[in-house]
Amino acid sequence: MKLLCESASELEHLVAMAKPFAKEGKVADYIPALSKVDGELLSVSLFYPDGCSYTAGDGNLILTLQSISKVITLALALMDRGEDFVFERVGQEPTGDPFNSIAKLETINPSKPLNPMINAGALAITSMIRGQDGAERIDRILHFIHELTGNPGLSYNKKVALSEYDTSHLNRALCYFMKQSGIINEDVEELMELYSKQCAIEMDCLSLAKMGCVFANDGKDPASGHRLIPSDIARICKTFMVTCGMYNASGEFAIKVGIPAKSGVSGGIMGSIPGKCGIGIFGAALDEKGNSIAGIRLLEMMSRKYSLSMF
Ligand code: GLN
Protein backbone atom coordinates (compact mmCIF):
# COMPACT_ATOMS: atom_id res chain seq x y z
CA MET A 1 0.00 0.00 0.00
CA LYS A 2 1.31 3.45 -0.89
CA LEU A 3 1.69 5.90 1.94
CA LEU A 4 1.66 8.80 -0.49
CA CYS A 5 -0.42 9.66 -3.40
CA GLU A 6 -3.29 7.47 -4.45
CA SER A 7 -2.92 8.40 -8.08
CA ALA A 8 -0.83 10.38 -10.51
CA SER A 9 -3.74 12.80 -11.06
CA GLU A 10 -3.68 13.75 -7.39
CA LEU A 11 0.01 14.61 -7.77
CA GLU A 12 -0.75 16.60 -10.96
CA HIS A 13 -3.23 18.65 -8.96
CA LEU A 14 -0.62 19.53 -6.31
CA VAL A 15 1.92 20.46 -9.00
CA ALA A 16 -0.64 22.75 -10.63
CA MET A 17 -1.21 24.49 -7.28
CA ALA A 18 2.52 24.91 -6.58
CA LYS A 19 3.58 25.99 -10.07
CA PRO A 20 2.41 29.65 -9.95
CA PHE A 21 4.87 30.32 -7.09
CA ALA A 22 7.71 29.98 -9.60
CA LYS A 23 6.88 33.50 -10.81
CA GLU A 24 8.10 34.88 -7.47
CA GLY A 25 11.54 33.26 -7.88
CA LYS A 26 14.59 33.68 -10.04
CA VAL A 27 16.73 31.18 -11.97
CA ALA A 28 20.37 31.04 -10.76
CA ASP A 29 22.66 32.95 -13.09
CA TYR A 30 25.99 33.04 -11.23
CA ILE A 31 26.88 29.92 -13.22
CA PRO A 32 26.05 31.33 -16.68
CA ALA A 33 24.97 28.01 -18.24
CA LEU A 34 22.28 27.54 -15.58
CA SER A 35 20.50 30.78 -16.49
CA LYS A 36 19.15 29.36 -19.76
CA VAL A 37 16.54 27.10 -18.10
CA ASP A 38 12.80 27.96 -18.09
CA GLY A 39 12.07 28.77 -14.44
CA GLU A 40 8.32 28.22 -14.72
CA LEU A 41 8.50 24.48 -15.36
CA LEU A 42 7.97 22.10 -12.45
CA SER A 43 8.11 18.34 -12.24
CA VAL A 44 8.07 15.73 -9.49
CA SER A 45 8.63 11.99 -9.22
CA LEU A 46 8.05 9.61 -6.34
CA PHE A 47 9.86 6.28 -6.20
CA TYR A 48 8.92 3.51 -3.76
CA PRO A 49 11.06 0.64 -2.49
CA ASP A 50 8.77 -1.84 -4.32
CA GLY A 51 9.80 -0.21 -7.63
CA CYS A 52 6.50 1.63 -8.12
CA SER A 53 6.74 5.27 -9.23
CA TYR A 54 4.67 8.34 -10.08
CA THR A 55 5.73 11.34 -12.14
CA ALA A 56 3.73 14.56 -12.58
CA GLY A 57 4.15 18.03 -14.03
CA ASP A 58 6.48 18.89 -16.88
CA GLY A 59 7.91 15.35 -17.11
CA ASN A 60 11.23 14.43 -18.69
CA LEU A 61 12.93 17.64 -17.56
CA ILE A 62 16.66 17.14 -17.14
CA LEU A 63 18.46 18.90 -14.31
CA THR A 64 22.06 19.10 -13.14
CA LEU A 65 22.54 17.97 -9.55
CA GLN A 66 24.59 20.93 -8.30
CA SER A 67 24.56 20.75 -4.49
CA ILE A 68 22.51 17.55 -4.46
CA SER A 69 25.75 15.87 -5.54
CA LYS A 70 27.15 16.74 -2.09
CA VAL A 71 25.13 13.90 -0.55
CA ILE A 72 26.48 11.43 -3.10
CA THR A 73 30.14 12.41 -2.67
CA LEU A 74 29.71 12.42 1.11
CA ALA A 75 28.51 8.80 0.97
CA LEU A 76 31.40 7.85 -1.34
CA ALA A 77 34.03 9.66 0.76
CA LEU A 78 32.76 7.94 3.90
CA MET A 79 33.00 4.58 2.12
CA ASP A 80 36.49 5.46 0.83
CA ARG A 81 37.98 6.91 4.01
CA GLY A 82 35.81 6.07 7.02
CA GLU A 83 34.07 8.35 9.51
CA ASP A 84 37.15 9.30 11.57
CA PHE A 85 39.16 10.58 8.61
CA VAL A 86 36.21 12.49 7.12
CA PHE A 87 35.01 14.16 10.31
CA GLU A 88 38.50 15.12 11.45
CA ARG A 89 38.49 17.43 8.44
CA VAL A 90 34.82 18.44 8.06
CA GLY A 91 32.41 19.19 10.91
CA GLN A 92 28.84 18.11 11.62
CA GLU A 93 27.08 21.37 12.49
CA PRO A 94 24.75 23.66 10.53
CA THR A 95 26.11 27.13 9.76
CA GLY A 96 23.15 29.47 9.37
CA ASP A 97 25.17 31.11 6.57
CA PRO A 98 24.64 31.03 2.79
CA PHE A 99 25.94 27.87 1.09
CA ASN A 100 29.03 29.52 -0.39
CA SER A 101 30.02 31.62 2.62
CA ILE A 102 33.71 31.86 3.52
CA ALA A 103 33.20 33.72 6.82
CA LYS A 104 33.31 30.86 9.34
CA LEU A 105 36.40 29.24 7.82
CA GLU A 106 38.40 32.01 9.43
CA THR A 107 36.58 32.35 12.74
CA ILE A 108 36.01 28.76 13.89
CA ASN A 109 38.64 26.82 15.77
CA PRO A 110 39.91 24.33 14.68
CA SER A 111 39.66 25.81 11.21
CA LYS A 112 37.58 23.31 9.24
CA PRO A 113 34.35 23.65 7.27
CA LEU A 114 31.32 23.21 9.52
CA ASN A 115 29.54 20.53 7.47
CA PRO A 116 29.65 18.62 4.15
CA MET A 117 26.51 20.30 2.70
CA ILE A 118 28.03 23.79 2.32
CA ASN A 119 30.48 24.48 -0.49
CA ALA A 120 33.60 24.56 1.69
CA GLY A 121 32.75 21.20 3.28
CA ALA A 122 31.72 19.66 -0.04
CA LEU A 123 34.97 20.74 -1.71
CA ALA A 124 36.93 19.12 1.13
CA ILE A 125 34.79 15.97 0.78
CA THR A 126 35.39 15.79 -2.99
CA SER A 127 39.13 16.02 -2.36
CA MET A 128 38.80 12.79 -0.33
CA ILE A 129 37.39 10.72 -3.23
CA ARG A 130 39.96 8.09 -4.13
CA GLY A 131 41.40 7.62 -7.63
CA GLN A 132 44.73 7.89 -9.43
CA ASP A 133 43.74 11.00 -11.37
CA GLY A 134 40.78 13.24 -12.15
CA ALA A 135 39.48 10.87 -14.83
CA GLU A 136 39.37 7.90 -12.48
CA ARG A 137 37.76 9.94 -9.72
CA ILE A 138 34.89 11.29 -11.86
CA ASP A 139 34.43 7.78 -13.25
CA ARG A 140 34.05 6.45 -9.72
CA ILE A 141 31.49 9.15 -8.86
CA LEU A 142 29.58 8.40 -12.07
CA HIS A 143 29.72 4.65 -11.47
CA PHE A 144 28.23 5.19 -8.01
CA ILE A 145 25.48 7.36 -9.56
CA HIS A 146 24.81 4.59 -12.10
CA GLU A 147 24.35 2.10 -9.26
CA LEU A 148 22.08 4.42 -7.28
CA THR A 149 19.84 5.24 -10.24
CA GLY A 150 20.07 1.93 -12.10
CA ASN A 151 20.87 4.06 -15.14
CA PRO A 152 24.33 3.41 -16.63
CA GLY A 153 23.86 6.07 -19.32
CA LEU A 154 24.08 9.08 -16.99
CA SER A 155 26.96 11.54 -17.28
CA TYR A 156 27.76 15.19 -16.65
CA ASN A 157 26.84 18.17 -18.82
CA LYS A 158 30.13 19.46 -20.26
CA LYS A 159 28.84 23.01 -20.90
CA VAL A 160 27.57 23.42 -17.35
CA ALA A 161 30.76 21.94 -15.89
CA LEU A 162 32.95 24.27 -17.93
CA SER A 163 30.75 27.27 -17.17
CA GLU A 164 31.14 26.64 -13.43
CA TYR A 165 34.87 25.88 -13.70
CA ASP A 166 35.44 29.17 -15.55
CA THR A 167 33.49 31.33 -13.11
CA SER A 168 33.74 29.82 -9.61
CA HIS A 169 36.14 32.31 -8.10
CA LEU A 170 34.60 32.07 -4.64
CA ASN A 171 34.91 28.26 -4.60
CA ARG A 172 38.59 28.65 -5.57
CA ALA A 173 39.01 31.06 -2.65
CA LEU A 174 37.45 28.47 -0.31
CA CYS A 175 39.88 25.84 -1.62
CA TYR A 176 42.96 28.02 -1.21
CA PHE A 177 41.86 28.93 2.32
CA MET A 178 41.50 25.24 3.16
CA LYS A 179 44.79 24.40 1.49
CA GLN A 180 46.47 26.93 3.74
CA SER A 181 44.97 25.25 6.82
CA GLY A 182 45.85 21.71 5.65
CA ILE A 183 42.26 20.48 5.04
CA ILE A 184 42.97 20.12 1.31
CA ASN A 185 46.30 18.89 -0.03
CA GLU A 186 45.74 18.50 -3.75
CA ASP A 187 46.09 20.90 -6.66
CA VAL A 188 43.20 23.39 -6.48
CA GLU A 189 42.57 23.49 -10.24
CA GLU A 190 42.27 19.68 -10.36
CA LEU A 191 39.82 19.75 -7.48
CA MET A 192 37.81 22.57 -9.12
CA GLU A 193 37.57 20.53 -12.31
CA LEU A 194 36.35 17.43 -10.48
CA TYR A 195 33.86 19.40 -8.34
CA SER A 196 32.48 21.28 -11.38
CA LYS A 197 31.89 17.95 -13.15
CA GLN A 198 30.24 16.36 -10.12
CA CYS A 199 27.85 19.35 -9.82
CA ALA A 200 27.01 19.09 -13.55
CA ILE A 201 25.90 15.44 -13.45
CA GLU A 202 22.47 15.44 -15.06
CA MET A 203 19.34 13.30 -14.80
CA ASP A 204 15.55 13.48 -14.75
CA CYS A 205 13.34 13.63 -11.65
CA LEU A 206 12.66 9.91 -11.71
CA SER A 207 16.38 9.08 -11.41
CA LEU A 208 16.65 11.69 -8.67
CA ALA A 209 13.74 10.05 -6.82
CA LYS A 210 15.41 6.64 -7.23
CA MET A 211 18.59 7.93 -5.58
CA GLY A 212 16.46 9.38 -2.76
CA CYS A 213 14.80 5.99 -2.43
CA VAL A 214 18.14 4.18 -1.92
CA PHE A 215 18.86 6.47 1.05
CA ALA A 216 15.27 6.03 2.29
CA ASN A 217 15.67 2.27 1.91
CA ASP A 218 18.58 2.14 4.37
CA GLY A 219 21.18 2.16 1.55
CA LYS A 220 19.78 -0.83 -0.34
CA ASP A 221 18.92 -0.93 -4.03
CA PRO A 222 15.11 -1.12 -4.15
CA ALA A 223 15.19 -3.32 -7.27
CA SER A 224 17.70 -6.00 -6.27
CA GLY A 225 17.89 -5.58 -2.50
CA HIS A 226 21.70 -5.30 -2.83
CA ARG A 227 23.38 -3.00 -0.38
CA LEU A 228 24.86 0.02 -2.20
CA ILE A 229 25.61 2.14 0.88
CA PRO A 230 26.36 0.87 4.39
CA SER A 231 23.39 1.46 6.68
CA ASP A 232 25.33 3.78 9.01
CA ILE A 233 26.46 5.96 6.10
CA ALA A 234 22.93 6.20 4.68
CA ARG A 235 21.81 7.29 8.14
CA ILE A 236 24.56 9.93 8.41
CA CYS A 237 23.65 11.33 4.96
CA LYS A 238 19.94 11.56 5.81
CA THR A 239 20.77 13.27 9.08
CA PHE A 240 22.86 15.92 7.30
CA MET A 241 19.99 16.37 4.85
CA VAL A 242 17.71 17.22 7.80
CA THR A 243 20.12 19.55 9.60
CA CYS A 244 21.86 21.24 6.63
CA GLY A 245 20.27 20.02 3.38
CA MET A 246 18.31 23.17 2.53
CA TYR A 247 21.18 25.57 3.33
CA ASN A 248 20.25 28.27 5.84
CA ALA A 249 16.55 27.45 5.37
CA SER A 250 16.93 23.97 6.88
CA GLY A 251 15.23 24.86 10.18
CA GLU A 252 12.12 26.32 8.57
CA PHE A 253 12.00 23.43 6.10
CA ALA A 254 12.17 20.92 8.98
CA ILE A 255 9.16 22.64 10.57
CA LYS A 256 7.10 23.04 7.40
CA VAL A 257 7.99 19.78 5.59
CA GLY A 258 9.93 17.62 8.04
CA ILE A 259 11.76 15.19 5.74
CA PRO A 260 15.45 14.67 4.86
CA ALA A 261 16.03 16.64 1.65
CA LYS A 262 18.88 18.20 -0.33
CA SER A 263 18.53 21.03 -2.80
CA GLY A 264 20.76 22.46 -5.53
CA VAL A 265 20.91 25.83 -7.30
CA SER A 266 19.70 24.17 -10.49
CA GLY A 267 16.30 24.02 -8.71
CA GLY A 268 16.48 20.32 -7.92
CA ILE A 269 15.43 18.78 -4.60
CA MET A 270 16.04 15.16 -3.61
CA GLY A 271 13.85 13.94 -0.76
CA SER A 272 14.32 10.74 1.16
CA ILE A 273 11.54 9.66 3.52
CA PRO A 274 12.98 6.90 5.72
CA GLY A 275 11.33 3.56 4.99
CA LYS A 276 8.79 5.14 2.66
CA CYS A 277 9.99 6.64 -0.63
CA GLY A 278 12.35 8.86 -2.59
CA ILE A 279 11.26 12.18 -4.11
CA GLY A 280 12.80 14.05 -7.05
CA ILE A 281 11.70 17.61 -7.85
CA PHE A 282 12.82 20.08 -10.46
CA GLY A 283 11.70 23.72 -10.60
CA ALA A 284 14.50 26.09 -11.57
CA ALA A 285 13.18 29.38 -10.11
CA LEU A 286 14.81 29.87 -6.71
CA ASP A 287 13.94 31.77 -3.55
CA GLU A 288 16.41 34.16 -1.94
CA LYS A 289 18.21 31.30 -0.14
CA GLY A 290 18.77 29.34 -3.35
CA ASN A 291 16.05 26.68 -3.00
CA SER A 292 13.44 25.88 -5.66
CA ILE A 293 10.58 28.20 -4.72
CA ALA A 294 7.77 26.15 -6.30
CA GLY A 295 9.49 22.90 -5.28
CA ILE A 296 9.38 23.89 -1.62
CA ARG A 297 5.70 24.89 -1.89
CA LEU A 298 4.97 21.53 -3.50
CA LEU A 299 6.72 19.66 -0.68
CA GLU A 300 4.84 21.72 1.92
CA MET A 301 1.55 20.78 0.29
CA MET A 302 2.55 17.12 0.02
CA SER A 303 3.70 17.06 3.63
CA ARG A 304 0.40 18.48 4.87
CA LYS A 305 -1.76 16.28 2.66
CA TYR A 306 0.09 13.02 3.37
CA SER A 307 1.40 13.73 6.88
CA LEU A 308 4.99 13.26 5.76
CA SER A 309 6.74 15.02 8.62
CA MET A 310 9.02 12.77 10.66
CA PHE A 311 8.46 15.03 13.64
N1 GLN B 1 27.92 24.14 -8.17
C1 GLN B 1 27.35 25.02 -7.19
C2 GLN B 1 28.42 25.82 -6.48
O1 GLN B 1 29.38 25.28 -5.99
C3 GLN B 1 26.56 24.23 -6.21
C4 GLN B 1 25.94 25.12 -5.21
C5 GLN B 1 24.51 24.81 -4.93
O2 GLN B 1 23.84 24.06 -5.62
N2 GLN B 1 24.02 25.46 -3.92
O3 GLN B 1 28.30 27.01 -6.37
Automatic annotation (TrEMBL):
Substrate binds at residues 67, 119, 164, 171, 195, 247, 265. GO terms for molecular function: glutaminase activity. The keyword RNA-binding does not apply. Its EC number is 3.5.1.2. InterPro entries: Beta-lactam/transpept-like (IPR012338), Glutaminase (IPR015868). Pfam families: Glutaminase. It catalyses: L-glutamine + H2O = L-glutamate + NH4(+). The keyword Chloroplast does not apply. Keywords: Acetylation, Hydrolase. GO terms for biological process: glutamate biosynthetic process; L-glutamine catabolic process. It is an enzyme of class 3 (hydrolase). Homotetramer. Belongs to the glutaminase family. PANTHER family: GLUTAMINASE. This is Glutaminase. It comes from Peribacillus deserti.
